[in-house]
Specification:
Blueprint lengths: L6 H12 L4 E2 H8 L5 H14 L2 E5 L5 E5 L12 E6 L5 E7 L15 E5 L6
Parallel strand pairs: 4-6
Antiparallel strand pairs: 1-3, 2-3, 4-5
Length: 124
């Protein structure tokens, strides 16, 4: 299946890669303004998650955040790290430490969503 590389897709990918933190759909929409509509952003972000370009984080606030993947290949996401949301400034970031998951025999993880909220170093 051929996947087109559209201008919208390129803008969204550039926004994800340039961000130093995980970003919500709303933040991407605000940054891109009227150049890309809401539905396109949702569709592209979902495709990025399916393709291993980005990963989705469901926060303790119920929002979904997206961050660019670094080591993922295709549908196999290769990261088991925690995510942190600052209760003061609202920043959501991927923490660098990988966590080793030890599941009982026969279990195979497809997704990991470890989330912590508190105060970042700048707000602590």
């Amino acid at each position: 299946m051929h996947v087109r590389n559209t201008k919208s897709k390129s803008l969204i990918l550039e926004t994800l890669k340039n961000s130093k933190q995980a970003v919500s759909h709303e933040k991407i929409q605000a940054e891109l303004g009227e150049s890309v509509d809401r539905a396109t952003i949702y569709r592209v972000l979902n495709r990025f998650c399916e393709e291993g370009i980005a990963h989705r984080i469901t926060g303790d606030d119920g929002k979904q955040y997206f961050a660019a993947c670094l080591k993922c290949q295709g549908k196999e996401h290769r990261h088991n790290h925690l995510h942190f949301r600052c209760l003061n400034c609202g920043k959501v970031e991927c923490l660098p430490n990988e966590i080793e998951l030890k599941l009982p025999a026969g279990y195979r993880p497809a997704n990991f969503n470890g989330f912590i909220s508190g105060h970042c170093p700048a707000c602590a």
